[in-house]
Design brief:
There is one protein chain. The chain contains 17 helices and 12 strands. The chain is α+β, with helices and mostly antiparallel strands. The strands form 4 sheets. A 5-stranded mixed sheet has the order 1-2-8-5-3, covered by helices on one side. It has a 3-stranded antiparallel sheet with strand order 4-11-10. It has a two-stranded antiparallel ribbon with strand order 6-7. Helix 4 runs parallel beside helix 11, helix 7 packs across helix 17 and helix 11 packs across helix 13.
Amino acid sequence: MSPSLLHRILDHDNRADPYPLYAELHRTPVLQEDGGPYVIGGFQDIERLLNDPRISSDVRNLAVGPASDGPLVEAAEGGPEAGADGGDGTDGAGMLPPAFLRLDPPDHDRLRRITNRPFGPPHSPHRIEDLRGELLTVVDGLIDGIARDGDPGNIDLVGAFAYPFPVTVICRVLGVPREDEARFHAWADVLAASLDPDPDAPDPRARLRASHDARLALGGYLAELIEERRRHPGDDMISQLAAGDGPDGTMSTMELLATTALLLVAGHETTVNLITNGMLTLLRHPWALDRLRQDPAFAVPLVEELLRYEPPVQLLPQRTPLTDIEVHGTVVPRGSSMWLVLAAGNRDPEQFADPDRFDPDRKGLRHLGLGSGIHGCFGAPLARLEAQLALSRLAARLEGPRLLADPPPYRRNAVLRGPRSLPVACSGIRP
């Protein structure tokens, strides 16, 4: 028997180019195979469901039965048995409650409002833009490091640039010591991997244990850091969240731990993929790289098209209807598992003309690269700015860049899809 379409989408052998499989998914508006999850890949359907209050983001609402994906989703997201929720939820020892990403209103709304006060409008309207100069300094410093210490004929842009840049930024924003990166890197990798509903994972129970241990270790580390920020507050988000003097009150210590863990991990994992996928796309489209080199303002529409064309988050494998809901004549039962394939929606031919063509000049572009609805990407303004600065400076300073491997090696993760490394050569690096 040939593997199901969903199994092929999740198969690491297809990670380098899943888009033909997404095109196949478009032929079935609501796909359910062998009693598994309900998989949806149409742009309009996904956008509507992401904005539908009847769709829950809380995995604790998922029923385990014929309409759910049982052990598969449990291994990926903690599931009912483990009492976890994909890296930021309550673990078996009760270490962390769900972060707001995994909550529904009203709890979600309260925690997100509190978190947003020190991050963006209306209370901190210039927070991100005021970082522009500092971010440029970090970007150019990393490129200078490649010129000084690396081999221009063999650069891994992930290890040398696309990973350290967003890690440095999120540490600065949160108030996490950059020198602690070696401590939380391994925990973040495990938690990101726990999001991947890999049907070929050799030992799902071992993955659950590793995720539990990583959450426990990260929670302990952040608890110490939060107490330090309470004693010696700074201008960082952890200090401001710990002080918590807004109209929604303060977070409990456990809520603050969960929120900080979410921001630290999500604040760099997705941006690494956005920058890496962006540079890979530019190297495959030299005309776009040349245009960006000549016109740095081109980075703004360029990044929006990248978010459509190669989104860093490919699918959301955990949404749950709170009541029976009809999608294209198919009734998705209450409590069943619903998967929304954002990357398929971004290549939907009913929404986008010539969807497989990379075209930064698309007019009126709406995409799902940052989600939609109340759970739309919290860090979107920062991620956009980071990608715009990173790609424009790489285009300006790398002379004659070219890929050394195409396709490059990809991470196993089907949710957070991106190259594990990006081997590039160039003839030199401009000062």
